[in-house]
Amino acid sequence: MLPLPSIKAFTSEGFIFTPISEQHQALIISLYTNKKAMHFIEPVQSAQSALKIHQSFVKKNNNTHSGFYTWAVQANQSYKTCTEVKTKNNDDIGFVVLYTKIGKNTLPLPEIGIMLKPHISGNGIATQVLSALIMQVFQLIPCDAINIRFHQKHTAMQRISEKLGFIYDELQQNQERKFIYDEMRIETIEKSKIVY
């Protein structure tokens, strides 16, 4: 897969996506040290480890060959007034990720992920945020499909991926296990299935 273009901010109807930078240190530390936020992702991190993760995100965002982008997500003002999202002005609600590599291994399809603050989850926000990210990925990368990877026991993410049109493919799952083993479920959405 070709190097990703330079990361840029983008917006959707309800959200603002800003490349993770130094100003997002508190967001990343708060998520990676939160037991509820990390439940289906990986073990809870210490503040020092979370700081290193943040620094890694910033470094990768500045390297088009890293195959890794992260954006902080904010609900815009009009969205906040229409929903029950309780955030302060300009408060990040979480972040999204796009990656085309795991380590030095190039993935067959780009993959996306999301991590929201626990009090934000459960309001349909993850579905809306991921929908906006999917549209952005198809604009950024010449690809016919995108994968999403999440823990097999994460039933909320299974419902979200189903709503978005992702499909589980057992053959792909088995091929992926040869590539990199983990307990994650992999689902795919095809570009041709997206309604613009």
Mean pLDDT: 85
CATH fold annotation of the domain at 10-143: Aminopeptidase
Helix segment count?
Answer: 7
Radius of gyration equals: 16 Å
The count of DSSP E runs of length 2 or more, i.e. the number of strands, is 8
CATH superfamily of the domain at 10-143: Gcn5-related N-acetyltransferase (GNAT)
Strand fraction equals: 25-35%
Q: In which range does the helix fraction lie?
A: 25-40%
The shape, in one word, is globular
State the end-to-end CA separation: 25 Å
In terms of per-residue confidence, which ranges show pLDDT below 50 for 5 or more consecutive residues?
none
User: In the CATH hierarchy, what is the architecture of the domain at 10-143 at level 2?
Assistant: 3-Layer(aba) Sandwich
The H/E string reads EEHHHEHEEHEHEHE
CATH top level of the domain at 10-143 is Alpha Beta
Helix vs. strand class: alpha+beta
Strand arrangement, major sheet? 1-2-3-4-5-6-8-7
Describe the largest sheet.
8 strands, mixed
Quick description:
The protein has 196 residues and is of the alpha+beta class. The chain contains seven helices and eight strands; from the N terminus they run E-E-H-H-H-E-H-E-E-H-E-H-E-H-E.
Which structural traits does this protein have?
196 residues; Aminopeptidase; 7 helices; 8 strands; 35% helix
What does this entry look like structurally?
By secondary structure, the protein is of the alpha+beta class. It is about 35% helix and about 30% strand. It has an eight-stranded mixed β-sheet, with helices on both faces. It is globular. The mean pLDDT is about 85.
